[in-house]
Amino acid sequence: MTFVVGDNCINCKHTDCVEVCPVDCFYEGPNFLVIHPDECIDCALCEPECPVDAIFSEDELPEGQDVYLELNAELAAIWPNITEKKDALPEAEKWDGVQDKLKHLER
Fold this sequence. Notes:
By secondary structure, this protein is of the alpha+beta class. The chain contains three helices and four strands.
């Protein structure tokens, strides 16, 4: 099993989760983070660290977010690894809780 970064991370991109990951399985895009499913050890340390509640166990993905399981795997294969905390995106507070943000994902 793996953890998955979901919809609410788009345009927020807090990196608190990256700092606690013991296996460095986070990858960074322009406005979104993903978890590499083959590297995640299901330790659950990242989930409570996300200030916008955008990380889920794959079997607890909210309804309508199943697409993020495949998207995390796809983008982790091409985006660079991130291992240190950075500042969130400038308008993160404005985007927190906005629904259906997939159309705003920058690849």
